[in-house]
Structure formats: C-alpha cells, structure tokens
Specification:
With about 230 residues, the protein is of the alpha/beta class. Helices cover about 35% and strands about 15% of the residues. Helix 4 packs across helix 6 and helix 7 packs parallel to helix 8. The longest helix has 14 residues. The chain starts with a helix and ends with a strand.
C-alpha cells in the first residue's frame, strides 16, 4: 500500500464523505438526493437553454446574433444542486468536482453535444489567487477523465476582472459587463469544435464572451455546458 493510499484511508475514516443535501455519510450526493435533483427538461430555448414553452428561441435570443452555438445545462440552479455548487465554489470542497462531473458525463451520454475539446471558463488571475482554484477547471478535468476528451486550459485567458454577473440586473447589463473580457492567446483551437465548461449559466453572457474570443481565434463551433442554469 502506498503512502497516498494510506492517507486517503485515514482521511476517509476521520472525515467521511457526507451528502451535501441531507448529511448522510457515504457520498457527496446520496441516492435519495440524486432522485430529487431539479432537472432542466425540455422544452427550452434552442440557443441559450433556458425554459421556453415554444421549444424554439426565447424572446431574448430572437434577433440576437450570438457567437455561442448553444448552451445546455442538466439542472436548474436550485435545491441540492445549488448547495453542491456553493460547496465546491465557496467552501473549498474540491473533492465534490468528480461527483458533479459525473452528472455532466451522464447528461452527455443521453444528450450528445458537438465538441472535441473541453475548455473551462477561466477566472481572472486575481480571483484565482484569492480562491486558490478554478471550479470550472476542476469540473473540466474530471469530465475529460470520464469522457476521454482533451482539456485545454492555457489558451483562453480572462484579462479583465469584471463584476460578478449576479450584480448586473438585466441581460443587456450582463453582456456589457462581459464585453472584451476574454482573449484566446494562440491558434491551437483553430478549426476545432469547442465545448466550454462552467458551473452555472446566469444569462449566457459569460459563455458568449468566451465564444467571441474563441471564434476570433478560429474555432469552428463553440457550445456551452454548465451544471446548472438560473431560470
């Protein structure tokens, strides 16, 4: 037995995994809580992925010449999913990223999306230093391990530290907030079909800004995949 394996056994014994939903020991998401996850089911907007009764484009996406080809999310940003993302994002529970990436991998098996390379939405360097890690990067790395898709992290760069999207009251404000925030630093993704990975989609403005930068660098298509969608 290696030292690393021994350390894992000791940690699991003294600090066992607990379900973020109900506190049950065993897994970060127990079977019972997985059965009540707030799934985002059709009909939804074909472009941004938010609920839309027509099953076509929502009013916001009508007439919007977006660079993002589409956004999909398995869950509403609510309940246990919201709690799990908060634990990952704000409470340093990095170990839950594998569990959450498993939910994304299962979703992709049932709902295949174009994409031959995974690109996590980057944090600004200052925010990365403050948090110590990028939750989207953790999700992308685990998803890449589960799907065998390559992950490219040092190509898309966030050079402007914009306000959190939750503070921008309207979709238009959020788009302006994200204008010229990202840049793709080389041509490695030229001619590639990119799948952007993030934790939560609020309005789609962040993913759209990433798509603008990636397509300017030659990406053929850019889709967004997030664990949850604010609706």
């Amino acid at each position: 037995m290696s030292l690393g394996q021994l350390q894992e056994i000791v940690v699991d014994f003294f600090f066992p995994c607990r379900c973020v939903g109900c506190g049950r020991v065993g897994d970060f998401l127990c079977t019972s809580c997985c059965q009540i996850l707030p799934r985002l089911l059709p009909p939804f907007c074909l472009k941004c992925g938010k609920p839309e009764s027509s099953g076509g484009l929502c009013p916001t996406c009508w007439g919007w010449q977006a660079e993002i080809n589409g956004i999909r999310s398995p869950f509403h940003f609510d309940g246990v999913v919201r709690q799990a993302i908060h634990e990952l994002k704000y409470h340093n529970l990095k170990a839950i990223s594998g569990c959450l990436a498993g939910l994304l991998a299962t979703y992709l098996q049932v709902n295949p999306m174009p994409g031959e390379v995974l690109v996590p939405v980057p944090l600004h360097p200052r925010r990365l230093r403050q948090r110590g890690y990028n939750q989207s990067s953790l999700l992308a790395q685990e998803l890449g391990r589960l799907t065998a898709l390559p992950v490219v992290e040092d190509c898309l760069f966030r050079f402007k530290d914009s306000l959190p999207q939750a503070r921008a009251p309207t979709v238009e404000d959020r788009r302006r907030n994200m204008a010229d925030v990202f840049a793709c630093l080389d041509q490695r993704l030229s001619g590639r079909h990119v799948l952007l990975v993030d934790d939560v989609c609020t309005s789609g403005a962040t993913l759209e800004a990433c798509a603008v930068a990636l397509k300017a660098a030659g990406a053929v298509s850019v889709w967004g995949l997030t664990l949850a969608r604010e609706t």
